[in-house]
Design goal:
The protein is of the alpha/beta class. Helix content is about 40%, strand content about 15%. It has an 8-stranded parallel beta sheet with strand order 7-6-5-4-3-2-1-8. The longest helix is centred in the last third of the chain and has 20 residues. The radius of gyration is 17 Å and the shape is globular. Pyridoxal-5'-phosphate binds next to β8 and α9.
């Protein structure tokens, strides 16, 4: 068994334990393997453990990997900041985008998505802690933005995503995740049908699952510590 498959088993066990502790079905939480900065060979190694959904932050870095692994039936999720000049590459190569926080970007993705493909599955990124300079729509602006997104063609709004402060503790993370869950419930009550809470990473997935995460995005615990973060040439 390769090391990544061994790590997958550990992470799946963590997810299952957290789900059971919360009285949830472990199958209600999907694992997104965040392969940013890692080569196609690492993604391939994870495939050997049955992993099919992968997350990437940089359009340029991802497109080479996606092309190299075409034919394996993988599902690709874009989870990084969406630059305006990368929307076409993202609309072409990805199945999901978790990090939409502006109408203008959503409109470009909708216009550029091939009408013959399934709609792009989209989550709204929310700056749930109101942190200065952080990506994400403010919680009080989420409802109008969600309504506008839900009306766009070729996109399907699925839910909400957040990234709480990395330097917090379990209590802070749970509070943030609970706020995102409540926001999703509020939007659902207002008639916007949503089924996805993308929240929880290597260090805080237990807190996220306790508060209702349906997708956890895990990199380090599967692939190891990243070196220097990759970047998109613009
Ligand atoms: C890198 C990244 C992750 C994975 O983080 P780890 O701490 O390595 O598990 C999850 N979500 C987003 C948006 C990321 O950029």
């Amino acid at each position: 068994m390769n090391a990544i498959v061994a790590n997958l088993q550990v992470v799946r066990a963590r997810i299952a334990a957290a789900a059971r502790a919360a009285g949830r079905d472990p199958a209600s939480v999907r694992l997104l393997a965040v392969s940013k900065t890692w080569p196609a060979a690492a993604v391939h190694a994870a495939c050997e453990g049955g992993q099919r959904a992968f997350g990437e932050n940089y359009a340029q870095e991802a497109s080479g990997k996606i092309a190299a692994l075409a034919g394996l039936g993988l599902e690709w999720h874009f989870i990084g900041p969406v630059q305006g000049n990368k929307t076409r590459a993202i609309a072409d190569a990805f199945d999901w985008v978790h990090s939409v926080d502006r109408l203008k970007i959503a409109e470009r993705l909708a216009a550029q998505r091939d009408a013959h493909r399934p709609p792009l599955q989209v989550c709204l990124q929310v700056n749930i802690g109101g942190e200065a300079g952080k990506a994400g729509v403010a919680p009080e602006e989420a409802a109008p933005l969600a309504r506008a997104l839900a009306a766009l063609p070729r996109l399907r709004l699925r839910g909400l995503m957040c990234i709480p402060e990395a330097d917090g503790d379990a209590a802070l993370w749970r509070g943030r995740f609970a706020c995102l869950r409540q926001l999703l419930q509020q939007l659902t009550q207002e008639g916007i049908a949503l089924d996805t809470l993308s929240m929880g990473m290597s260090h805080d997935l237990e807190a996220a699952i306790a508060e209702g995460a349906t997708i956890v995005r895990v990199g380090t615990a599967l692939f190891g510590a990243r070196g220097k973060a990759g970047t998109d040439a613009s």
